[in-house]
Amino acid sequence: MIINEKRTNFKYNFIVMTHLKKISTTHPKHTDKKKAENSIKKFQEEIFKLQNVLYAQQKHSLLIILQGMDASGKDGTIKHVFSCVNPQGCNVKSFKSPTEEEKKYDYLWRIHAHIPPKGMMQIFNRSHYEDILFPTVHNLLPKKLIHKRFKEINEFEEQLKENGTVIIKFFLHISKKEQSKRLKDRLTDSHKKWKYDPGDKEEAKNWDEYMKVYEHIIDRCGHSIPWHIVPSDDKWYRNYYVAKTIADKLKSLKMTYPS
Questions:
Q1: Radius of gyration (Cα) for the chain, nearest Å?
Q2: Poorest-confidence range of 3-12, 15-24, 35-44, 78-87?
Q3: Whole-structure pTM value
Q4: pLDDT at residue 192 in the model
Q5: How buried is residue 163: exposed, middle or buried, by Cβ count under 10 Å (0-12/13-18/19+)?
Q6: Three-state SS for 173?
Q7: Is the pLDDT of residue 11 over 90?
Q8: How many other CB atoms sit within 10 Å of the CB of residue 213?
C-alpha cells in the first residue's frame, strides 16, 4: 500500500492517506509476463499443499476478501487463482444487494453465516465493506452511522483474527478506462454477455465518489489487517500478485500435519 501526503476530505471529515489516483493500475515495469505466469503455477502448487495442511491441522481458517469496482476482475481472480484448491476445503460467497430477509437483521448477520471454520478457506466476492461503500456513495445513511460501521467492522475482523481466522484483503485496482473497456466487452463477447447489467454503467458514473470511499476504507480499516492494493489492468499480473500473497501468507503460518 502506497502512502502519500495527508489531505482532508471534507465530505467525510477525515484525513486521507491513500491516493488511489497516484497508485498504478498496471504491472510494474520490471515484471516479466512469462516469468510471472510460470510463477503462478508454482504458487498454486504451494497453495494446494498448504491447504491440505490447513485442513488437517484445524488450527487456522483463511478468509480472502476481494473488493473492487465492477469489472475489476473478482470473478476472474477466483477462477484463475483458486483452480488449484480442493473444493472440499474451500467455499466462495458472493455478496449482492441484501435480500428482504437479510434486511430484517443487522448488516453483519449475513456475513457471520459464512465465516470459515478452522481448517477451511473462504473467499468473499465483495463483502461487509459493501455496507459502507454503497450507502455512502448514495447517501442512504447518516454520516454518524457510517462512521460507526467502520468501528464495528474493525472490531469484527479483530475478533475473527483472535479466534484463528487469517484475513487477507485485496482491492483490485483498475483504471476508469480499463473498466469502460471491460463493460463494453460484456455487450459483444458471447462468453461475457451473461455478466452484463445495465446498472453497472450507471454506477460507473459515480467513479470518483467510489474512489473516495475506497480510500477511506483502506485508511480506516487497514491498520491491524492491511489492504493489498493490486494493480489489475493486467489480468496476468493481478493473478500473480494474489497467488503469491496467499502462498506467502500460508507459508508464514508454519503449519504442520498433526502427529
A1: 18
A2: 3-12
A3: 0.92
A4: 73
A5: exposed
A6: strand
A7: no
A8: 22
Instruction: Check: CB of residue 40 under 8 Å from CB of residue 243.
Output: yes
Residue 133 and residue 214 in contact, taking contact as beta carbons nearer than 8 Å: yes
Q: What share of the chain is helix, strand, coil (3-state, %, to 5)?
A: 50, 15, 35
* pLDDT > 70? residue 4: no
Pairing outcome for strands 14-16 and 7-9: antiparallel
Longest dimension (CA), the chain: 57
Instruction: Compute the mean pLDDT over every residue in the chain, rounded to the nearest whole number.
Output: 92
Angle at the Cα of 173 from the Cα atoms of 167 and 175, rounded to 5 degrees: 170
Place of cell 510494474: 28
CA dihedral 226, 205, 95, 112 (to 10 degrees): 50
CB 16 within 8 A of CB 213: no
Q: How far, in Å, CA of 79 to CA of 212, rounded?
A: 29
pLDDT at 197: 75
Give the residue from 204, 179, 213 showing the smallest Cα distance to 12.
213
Sheet holding 90-94, edge to edge: 90-94, 121-125, 61-68, 165-173, 227-231
Position 249 confidence tier, pLDDT thresholds 50, 70, 90: very high
In the chain the domains, ranked by start, together with CATH numbers, are: 7-252 (3.40.50.300)
